[in-house]
3-dehydroquinate dehydratase (Lacticaseibacillus manihotivorans DSM 13343 = JCM 12514), 248 residues
Amino acid sequence: MKGSGVVKFVQALQQSRPAIAVPISASDGQSFLQQVDLIGQNSAVQVVEWRVDTSAALSDDAIQQMAERLHQAGKLLLMTLRTQAEGGAFQGDAQAYQCEYTRLLNLIAPEALDIEASVPETIRESCVQLAHDHQLAVVASAHDFHHTPSLADAKSQLRAQSTWADVVKLACMPQTPQDTLNLLALSAWARKTLKQPAIVIGMGQLGQLTRVASGAFAPGLTFATLGHASAPGQLSVNLIHELQEELF
């Protein structure tokens, strides 16, 4: 039987509209908790992604306060340690990646854990087991900041991730309008074919349509901003919410 964190997170990503997520990434405790409180007050935000790799200086107390405040506000927490290979700031090796997640899960209880598809298989399997031992959903993530794979290759990638994760994620940088159309087609295919929710994101200006798509083309989750964007092409929470209300 899947744990409550898995169920809550997966159900939030199985709606006709994508759930709206906001990353938090401040490195000092005061700014960090101010971001947390701002997000907690916004009813349109359902998921908060804590970017662990940008918050190395935070105290354990600030981390625990963050989790408590977000859960009191009814937000789901996705914990993400993004490596440099995937566009993040974490410089440790694969063993350090696993150790950091182990340490943090002794402090707080998020609903989901991001695990990069590119980490070595033995470490990946250990992290998946760690997440499921804590009754958390596993988000398998992959990023390409330069290209977008063909539709066939993207389908194969999501299928491979779906063999070990509760949610699959692919974020790419479209170079042409056709790349964006392929990503929308990928979202529609994933909704129809995969058992897991799929987060399919086009970065940059060409990818913005993928961030507001709903209905048959909706990703399970769209990342938005209440200030500083953590990835190219992110739109504001208010804009995405307004478009959802007007168009869908």
In short: The longest helix spans residues 177-193. The first strand starts at residue 19 and ends at 24. The chain has a mean pLDDT of 92. Residues 4-247 form a domain with the TIM Barrel fold (CATH 3.20.20.70).
